Amino acid sequence: MTDIKRFAVEETSVLALLGPDDAPLVGDDKLPMTVTLYGPGSKSYARAQAAQQNRMIDKLKRKGKADQSAEDKAREQAEFLAGCTKEFSANIEYEGLKGEALHKAVYADTSIGFIAEQVGKHLGEWSNFSKGSPKP
After folding, report:
1. So what's the pLDDT on residue 61?
2. Is the per-residue pLDDT at 31 higher than 70?
3. Torsions phi, psi of 87, nearest 5?
4. What is the pTM of this model?
5. Which residues make beta-bridge pairs with 18?
């Protein structure tokens, strides 16, 4: 018999960020800019997903419809992605912010929207969290 748990995924994965031209993003320190993410098999991801669903339910209760502006959608996506983010590499800065505030601000900034897009795609692939994927 085979223990199915041996196929379990890792809780986190490291994503090396790429620029809009697909070139690796590096900081002033010449090190790669990375994001450590909680994957779909983690409790942090499940909490972020539940919070996202609860926001949608609350909106439906208040307004009776699911329409949302582009700004609302971007903010909600930023909140979900921030909930799935363990940390940014130390060489990522944004207006002096730290922690979750930093994560939300980066993900909500449409001028660097390619970052939120990459993070969303990475989270959507279970294989990125397999036992052989990069770790922090």
Report:
1. 75
2. yes
3. -165, 160
4. 0.86
5. 24
Assigned token pair, 93 = 């800065």
CB neighbours of residue 110 within 10 Å: 10
Q: How far apart are the first and last CA of the chain?
A: 33
Cβ–Cβ under 8 Å, residues 128 and 39: yes
Output the 3-class SS for the chain. CCCHHHHCCCCEEEEECECCCCCECECCCCCECEEEEECCCCHHHHHHHHHHHHHHHHHHHHHCCCCCCHHHHHHHHHHHHHHCEEEECCCCCCCCCCHHHHHHHHHHCHHHHHHHHHHHHHHCCHHHHCCCCCCC
Residues 6+ apart with CB under 8 A from 113: none
In angstroms, the CA 38 to CA 48 distance is 10
